[in-house]
Specification:
The chain has 383 residues and is mainly alpha-helical. Helix content is 73%, strand content 3%. The protein has 12 helices and 4 strands, in the order H-H-H-E-H-H-E-E-E-H-H-H-H-H-H-H.
């Protein structure tokens, strides 16, 4: 009797781990679509009533905001689908349940978009107030001084509130069309689980295997690869300015890609971890030196360089990789069960978003085809 009772918790855990998760193709379809539409309305509103200094390159800004909002939308859509699966089952049939599920996804996506638009408007308002007060302090040179400033503040605030309300309505309509179109393309059904459906009913997926160490190793591979992508994007620029710096980033990029491949293949894993740590630490030290004291050699020796979005993201990836590598090198620390599929998906989505923002912020040459010069795009985003 005691033996049977001792087995019950482990069986319960096995059954819990075997429950299928939400299909990420469904999450990605809704998240990508609503992220792009929200970014479009955000950039449109800012271009109409916001600070002109923020978004001088609308296409580049739309790409940046679409990517930045993607992990947030992924989390929102995932939450709505998990709630719908709990209420209605793994596959939603019937117009009432399909409509309820679609409304959950629509509500989550619209609220997320309105929150992002409101935050952008608040930032614009703060920036405009700074400009207004700065100009108000200039004797005889400002169009609004003295008692005029409070009235101008109220009018600008009212303009932003009206703008958020108007664009919120447009966003709701756009998202409603998007969700309805996707559901219609899926034949009026929304699949909420990864189960395979046959004539005999649902087939459970196998329980996840592996340990947390394997998940962390894959995260290190993603971080090192992401840093390599950003380093590769700045190679042409550095080759023009200072060939030695360009070759440095080229060697680091190739080394990071090789090490990521070795870690993925688990070939001499411990040596690959040390190599990955070295390739993460060296660029960090060079970056810190160049942004504080200035490198003692090169065309601008002794001059501290400006901090930009791409290098900050590359440094965040490097620091994250170092912390995870340190954990992997400590045996026995990561022997816990593997993460759930949902958590893995959210982490992957966030990592892809961060890497993409860092890559876009470098100002790759394909922006030129849309009237955005690569150098200008990189400078604008680093401010």
């Amino acid at each position: 009797m005691s033996t049977l009772s001792s087995l019950r918790p482990s069986r319960a855990r096995a059954h819990h781990s075997a429950r299928p998760g939400v299909p990420w193709a469904t999450v990605a379809t809704f998240a990508v679509g609503m992220s792009c539409t929200s970014a479009f309305w955000l950039v449109s509103l800012t271009g109409a009533i916001g600070s002109p200094d923020r978004y001088e390159r609308p296409f580049a800004t739309w790409v940046m905001m679409s990517i930045a909002l993607l992990p947030v939308y992924g989390a929102g859509v995932l939450g709505a689908m998990v709630l719908a699966k709990h209420w209605f089952g793994p596959v939603v049939h019937g117009w009432a349940r399909v409509l309820a599920t679609a409304l959950l996804i629509l509500a989550g996506g619209t609220l997320t978009g309105v929150a992002a638009i409101a935050a952008s408007g608040a930032y614009d308002y703060h920036f405009q107030m700074h400009v207004l007060h700065t100009m108000g302090g200039m004797n005889g040179m400002a169009p609004c001084t003295g008692p005029c400033i409070p009235r101008e503040e109220h009018q600008i605030l009212a303009l932003h509130i009206d703008g958020v309300q108007l664009v919120g309505q447009k966003l709701l309509l756009t998202n409603a069309v998007l969700v309805a179109w996707v559901v219609a393309m899926w034949g009026g059904r929304i699949k909420l689980t990864n189960r395979s459906w046959r004539n005999h009913g649902p087939v459970e997926e196998a329980a996840p295997t592996g340990t947390l160490a394997n998940d962390v190793r894959l995260l290190v591979v993603g971080m090192v690869t992401g840093a390599a992508v950003i380093h590769a994007a700045v190679v042409p620029e550095h080759l023009e300015e200072w060939p030695a710096a360009g070759w440095f980033f080229l060697v680091v990029t190739l080394g990071e890609l090789v090490v990521a491949g070795l870690l993925l293949a688990r070939f001499h894993e411990r040596a690959a971890l040390y190599a990955a740590g070295t390739l993460s630490a060296v660029p960090l030290m060079v970056w810190l030196w160049s942004r504080t004291l200035g490198l003692p050699f090169g065309p601008e020796s002794g001059v501290a360089e400006a901090v930009g979005v791409p290098d900050v993201i590359a440094c965040v990836l490097g620091v994250g990789a170092l912390l995870k590598i340190w954990g992997l090198l400590k045996p026995g620390r990561l022997l816990r069960p593997a993460l759930s599929a949902h958590i893995k998906g959210l982490v992957a989505l966030a990592l892809i978003g961060v890497i993409s923002i860092g890559f876009v912020a470098t100002g790759p040459s394909w922006f030129d085809a849309f009237g955005v010069h690569a150098t200008q795009s990189s400078m604008d985003m680093s401010e």
